[in-house]
């Protein structure tokens, strides 16, 4: 059995849209922080048909009338202790296919997230990258971090950035995924406004926006400039500019949802209130900036040196996850 740990990442310049879904070429280059305290732990081992039969029978005993859910499963996938149905398992099986010769090599994957799953909290980036790391060990591939990142993007684009840290970039033109250097010690506070699963996955959301948003071309153009500028501001260790651009880039990404057909939004009322709260704090001298992904939760970008003070302020009002970045 192998056991690995992988970290979530949250983008400060967003990947939103695919230029070529088959080759996994993103429409926009992206930059993210890899977070030390938001992670997935994954165990993986080889199993046989009998193991699958026993696990499914056990599940059916617990929960009658659910036979159909587990039909045709060729692997076992447990998420936070719960056996996943064939639809979910198939998604992970496809990722394992990137490493195995054929489906006769069956595996059991047990994965635990230390954060809510699929609420736009980037559990997919740590989850997918963890499976990739586990496969690398179980199938004894010895791939480099760069090679693993390149494989991981086929599971989920953003997961590719979890192989580098504290800051990672994914370049749409070269396809490269690499570490970005800065002397800034960045950190994040996730404000958990809603732990429910997101209504529109990032995959479906970005596809709808790329196809129908009247603002999408402009988003792609502006994002190209954002990527260049963000790397410059990071190299210059200019936190104010990094923070300001983080907010602008996130709002531009979300403008593509408002201008899609049909229009939609990942935000709720609390998201808007929270953005205002952060702006007010800034007006009072605090160094903090917001970003949001495919969900209503707000992530606060700050400096590590302010983490404790800001966690105190946000912790009074919100359920928070506080995290430094991790050096990989
Ligand atoms: C909003 O990586 O989940 O979090 O490649 O289709 O699996 P797929 O999408 P995914 O998209 C993440 C989008 C985002 C922004 C980001 O992390 O850059």
Q: Topology, please?
A:
Elements: E1 2-13, E2 18-20, E3 25-26, E4 30-47, H1 49-62, E5 76-79, E6 82-83, H2 86-97, E7 106-113, H3 123-138, H4 145-152, E8 167-170, E9 177-179, E10 186-192, H5 202-212, H6 216-235, H7 239-258, H8 269-283, E11 289-292, E12 298-303, H9 307-317, E13 319-324
Parallel strand pairs: 5-7
Antiparallel strand pairs: 1-4, 2-3, 4-7, 4-8, 5-6, 8-9, 10-12, 10-13, 11-12
Bound molecules: ligand DP6.
Alpha-beta content class: alpha+beta
Q: What's the tally of helices?
A: 9
**Total strand count, please?**
13
User: Helices and strands, in N-to-C order?
Assistant: EEEEHEEHEHHEEEHHHHEEHE
Question: How far is the first residue's CA from the last residue's CA?
Answer: 23 Å
Strand content: 15-25%
Mean pLDDT: 95
Features:
alpha+beta; binds ligand DP6; four-stranded antiparallel sheet; 9 helices; Ribosomal Protein S5, domain 2
Structure description:
- This protein is of the alpha+beta class and 328 residues long.
- It folds into two domains: 177 residues, 2-Layer Sandwich (Ribosomal Protein S5, domain 2); 140 residues, 2-Layer Sandwich (Alpha-Beta Plaits), CATH 3.30.70.890.
- 39% of the residues lie in helices and 24% in strands.
- The protein is built from nine helices and 13 strands.
- The strands form three sheets. Strands 1, 4, 5, 6, 7, 8 and 9 form a seven-stranded mixed sheet that branches. The chain has a four-stranded antiparallel sheet with strand order 11-12-10-13. A two-stranded antiparallel ribbon has the order 2-3.
- Helix 3 packs across helix 4 and helix 6 runs antiparallel to helix 7.
- The radius of gyration is 20 Å and the shape is globular.
- The model has no long low-confidence stretch (mean pLDDT 95).
- Bound molecules: ligand DP6.
- Ligand DP6 binds next to helix 5.
């Amino acid at each position: 059995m192998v056991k690995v740990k992988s970290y979530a990442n949250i983008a400060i310049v967003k990947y939103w849209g695919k230029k070529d879904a088959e080759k996994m070429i993103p429409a926009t280059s992206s930059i993210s922080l890899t977070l030390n305290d938001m992670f997935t732990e994954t165990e993986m081992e080889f199993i046989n048909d009998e193991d699958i039969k026993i696990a499914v029978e056990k599940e059916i005993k617990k929960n009658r009338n659910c036979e159909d859910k587990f039909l045709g499963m060729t692997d076992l996938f447990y998420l936070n202790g719960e056996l996943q149905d064939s639809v979910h398992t198939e998604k992970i099986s496809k990722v394992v296919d990137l490493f195995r010769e054929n489906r006769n090599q069956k595996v059991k994957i047990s994965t635990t997230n230390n954060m809510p799953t699929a609420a736009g909290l980037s559990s997919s980036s740590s989850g997918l990258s963890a499976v990739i790391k586990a496969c690398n060990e179980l199938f004894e591939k010895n791939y480099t971090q760069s090679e693993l990142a390149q494989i991981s993007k086929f599971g989920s684009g953003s997961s590719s950035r979890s192989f580098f840290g504290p800051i990672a970039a994914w370049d749409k033109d070269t396809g490269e995924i690499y570490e970005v250097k800065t002397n800034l010690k960045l950190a994040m506070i996730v404000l958990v406004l809603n732990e429910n699963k997101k209504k529109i996955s990032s995959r479906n959301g970005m596809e709808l926006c790329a196809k129908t948003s009247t603002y999408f071309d402009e988003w792609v153009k502006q994002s190209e400039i954002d990527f260049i500028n963000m790397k410059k501001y990071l190299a210059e260790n200019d936190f104010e500019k990094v923070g300001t651009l983080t907010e602008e880039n996130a709002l531009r990404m979300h403008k593509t949802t408002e201008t899609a057909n049909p229009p939609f939004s990942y935000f709720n009322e609390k998201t808007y209130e929270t953005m205002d709260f952060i702006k007010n704090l800034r007006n009072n001298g605090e160094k903090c900036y917001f970003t949001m992904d495919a969900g209503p939760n707000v992530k606060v970008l700050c400096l590590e040196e302010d983490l404790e003070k800001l966690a105190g302020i946000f912790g009074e009002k919100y359920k928070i996850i506080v995290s430094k970045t991790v050096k990989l």
